[in-house]
Structures are given as C-alpha cells and as structure tokens.
Amino acid sequence: MSSALITGASRGFGRALAQELARRDWQLIIDARGDAELQASASSLGSAVTAIPGDVADPEHREELARAVGRLGPLDLLVNNASVLGPSPLPGLDRYPIEELERVHRINTVAPLALTQLLLEAVRAASGTIVNITSDAAVEPYEGWGGYGSSKAALDQLSAILGVEQGSIRVYAFDPGDMRTAMHQAAFPGEDISDRPEPETVVPALLRLLEEAPPSGRYRASDLLITATKAAS
To answer: Which CATH architecture has domain 3-232?
Structure first.
C-alpha cells in the first residue's frame, strides 16, 4: 500500500488530494491547524488515515508527524501543502507588517523544509516524491502579493536545489493555479470567485505528474491538464 503525508488537508486542495488518494487505497497521514475541520475531513477518508492536528511551524508538531511516518515505514509521497496568505486585504510591501511577513515565511517556506529534513530518509527509502505546493505569485509581480509571493518564490528555489541535491527522489514545485478556496477568497474579500475551478478539478494534474514521474522541477497544473487533453483527443 502506498503512503503519503499531506499537510493542510482539512480543506481546499489538500483535502481534495487526500480524498482521491484514499479512493486509490493509499495510507494517509494528514494534518491541519483546525482540529474540528481536520477530523471532519478524516472521517470521509476511511480507516487508513491518521489525522494529527497542529501547526507545521511548530517543531513539536513536525516531530509528531515524523513519529507517525516512522510507524508506517517508507514514505512514497510528502505533500507540503499547508500555507497561509498573510494579512487580508493584501497590503503593499511599503506597509506590510514585518512580524506578519516573518510568520508567512515561517509557515510557507521554513516549515516545509524543516519537515522535509525530518522525513527525507523515509522518502529516500521509498524512492519517493516530495511535492511543494507553490503559486504563480512566486513568479509574477502581482500588487499586494509581496508577502505570500516571496515565500513561495523562496520555496520554489528550495525545491529546485533539493531536487539537484537529492538525485534518488523526485522533488516537484507544483503550481495548481487559481482555485475556489477559502484562501483565495481571503485574497479577494467581498469579490465573487465562483469562476475559479474547484480544487477537485486540479487533482488530476498532480496525479499525472506523479504517475509520469518526470525529472524534478517546477510544473504547472494548467500545462499538465492541457497536454493530457491533447493526448486524449
């Protein structure tokens, strides 16, 4: 049975991915900051799931996740999905609260690397895959997105270097694009985001990436979905 740890799996893309992997009989460890939402998500995933509430920025929580992985054995997939947007409405960098910038980077950039360090041996043992969820805000200069975007840009670079350094595994920075999520709504308070795709529609792009297993690198869901459509036509 394949195994995966998915952070931030109580809602949005993390939850959608966990649901699909559960349908494929994967053994899952999931986490999220909100205990009630996490348990609600876990209840829909069957018996092969371990739900551990906590904040990935907390070293003790990361250690708890690592112990849970240790009980499973080799880890086929680590998905660093948990992240925070930062202040909403999004402030410009000229007035971005520095303590909030530090918090965004601590959760979005430092925590994924710290968790990866703890779990790298288990991923290597499975010749597995690390997926760091990134954003187009990492590569495009959107007004107001300096805090979140810079944290994801740093995560992109960490992913690229880790992919070079760890040749026995695959390391992907995966950009899912805009989705209809609570985080995206917080970025656009009061606006209608119903035209954004549901997270479930993006999961096939990541599954294709995992199945085809190209070299480590940065991949966009939109590109993977387009090429899949062309191949099917």
So the answer is: 3-Layer(aba) Sandwich (3.40)
pTM: predicted TM-score of the whole model, two decimal places:
0.95
- Distance CA(180)–CA(197), nearest Å, equals 6
Which CA distances in Å does 150 have to 78, 105, 138, 139, 146? 22, 8, 6, 9, 6
Over the chain (233 residues), the average pLDDT of each successive run of 10 is 96 96 97 94 90 98 98 97 96 98 98 98 98 98 97 98 98 95 87 92 97 98 78 48
- Beta-carbon count within 10 A of 223 CB: 12
For 35, the token pair is: 């205990």
Decide if 16 contacts 205 (C-beta within 8 A).
Answer: no
Q: Which helix (H) or strand (E) is 51 found in, with range? A: strand 49-53
Q: How many residues does the chain have?
A: 233
Q: Which residues pair with 28 in a beta bridge?
A: 4, 49
**All structural domains of the chain with their residue ranges:** 3-232
- 129 in Cβ contact with 78 (< 8 Å): yes
Strand bridging mode 170-175 / 49-53:
unpaired
